[in-house]
Amino acid sequence: MLDATNILKTLPPKRWLAALVLSSVLIVFAITSTLLWDPALTHCVSHSLAGAAPLAPVHVPAQKSDATKDNLSSIYDTASLLLHGTASRSFKENLRPDVRYITSWPSEGFTNQMIAYMNLIYLGLVTDRVPIIPRFTPLHIGSDKPELDFGEVFDIPRLQEAINLLILQWSQVKDPTSRFVDDLGCWNTQNSVWQTSGRHHTPPRSVNLDISYTTAPEWIRYPSQLQNPTFPHALFWALASLAFNDTRTWTPQEPDPSPTHHAVLPPDDHLLCYDLLYYAGAHELFEFNYEISPAWRFVGQHMHWTARIQQIAESYTRETLGIAPHAPIPPYIAVHARRSDFEVWCKGVPIKDCYVELSAIARRVEDVKAELLARKGIRVDEVIMTSDEKDPEWWDAVRELGWRWPNHTRTVELYGPWYPPLIDKAIQSGSLGFVGTDRSTFSSISLRRVRSWNDGAVRMVLWGRPGADDR
Ligand SMILES: Nc1nc2c(ncn2[C@@H]2O[C@H](COP(=O)(O)OP(=O)(O)O)[C@@H](O)[C@H]2O)c(=O)[nH]1
Ligand SMILES: *[C@@H]1O[C@H](CO)[C@@H](O)[C@H](O)[C@H]1NC(C)=O
Ligand SMILES: *[C@@H]1O[C@H](CO)[C@@H](O)[C@H](O)[C@H]1NC(C)=O
Ligand SMILES: *[C@@H]1O[C@H](CO)[C@@H](O)[C@H](O)[C@H]1NC(C)=O
Questions:
Q1: Is 52 in the pocket of ligand 3 (CB under 6 A)?
Q2: Among 189, 178, 182, which residue's Cα sits nearest to residue 210?
Q3: Strand, coil or helix: 382
Q4: Which residues contact 3 (CB under 8 A, 6 or more apart)?
Q5: Ligand 4 shell residues, CB under 6 Å
Q6: How far is the C-alpha of 55 from the C-alpha of 53, rounded, in Å?
Q7: pLDDT at position 67
Q8: Is the confidence at residue 428, as pLDDT, over 80?
Q9: For atom 25 of ligand 1, which residue has the closest CA?
């Protein structure tokens, strides 16, 4: 890559001055054009260059009504810009020809789905398309459980404003009770690695699609994963390039027929669709674990809880700490001890020697306290434990440390099956110090929130054998 400093190095000494003047002019020009940059204008320009018909803006309109913040109905106002009307029988009836859309499907537990949707929205930014986000789907908590709208959890108006991109939910596009099965052509980004398993990702039941998949080219993969693929990670910009025609010098594979109607459809250009974006990143595997994560920095950190989730979590926090309903919440440290089904990682090590140890957690809590005192001059005494552990003896040991935990006895009954972990996540994200369990995505995203939102002190505890966290 050539940048200003490299240009200087490659020139003979006498021409340095000229190059310096030239690069200064270029820098001034770059700064001026950045200052004058108008997202709406650039948007139109980039699309007219592509030779396509003029598109409706996918960005947040300049004159917003005052009612946008924390007002669920304003989400539906935004939909009126991007759809023909209210949720329809077939999604195709509702898409506007002058808007381009992008979508993808869920897999695994809540956090995996949240990461996949964060990546979907980031790819929406990268491709200038409106993301249509599926509901959270009960793949781990039992298929008899209800699906959950993204907008019930995350504050979409605030997100749209922060990232300057409009967002839709599938439940706005297609009536979730519609029995109509739409056909759609999508990219299969997983199969070239996990070929044998037939892992065709499916949308939530309420979206009701019959999908014809086209296997994406091999070069979407991380170079490091081509030879010895462990995880089917794909690169954001390689995925994005599938949305553009003018660089396409290759011929896509034949689409697989859809399972129900045996429709053979190339990947749709109006509603661009990928099977799964959980394994996507720019440079690192499982990139949400690292500060570099562009999906986190450009999207994830702007996915704040809805006011309702925030209020519920705060009332649980107050109850846990034993403070009055409207009293201010003191700074606290949150712990996430991920146990329950993590024995898959233990590989023969007995669970009692494998799972994250309380003594190791307690050491990291002390680290966090010390950092908060040194860095912020704040003494934090309160520690809130959150965990999926069921064993009452383990909880007795937590009590002996002087720590407390939210009482979820009535949470499912009051709010439904998604809420115990949601409330625990929101409690974690409100902490000034966070201690999580290594290899848990649940912990990892809470760690990111505490860093991005609260400038908090954070640690991950290692585990897998006795003394795993000794360092
Ligand atoms: N209520 C509650 N549930 C938890 C907690 N930790 C884990 N779970 C449950 O275990 C699941 C973990 O799955 P996931 O979110 O994908 O995270 P990961 O498996 O830790 O990477 C969650 O969705 C919860 O159902 C916790 O601290 N509190
Ligand atoms: C929400 O927005 C709608 C229209 O934008 C408005 O009529 C309504 O009063 C708002 N509700 C609240 C609670 O602010
Ligand atoms: C890509 O090519 C297809 C078929 O030629 C065309 O229908 C579509 O509009 C093109 N997409 C873009 C973004 O130009
Ligand atoms: C938790 O809540 C339930 C029901 O509200 C209550 O009966 C129980 O005593 C509470 N447990 C603790 C430890 O406070």
A1: yes
A2: 182
A3: strand
A4: none
A5: 407, 409-410
A6: 6
A7: 46
A8: yes
A9: 421
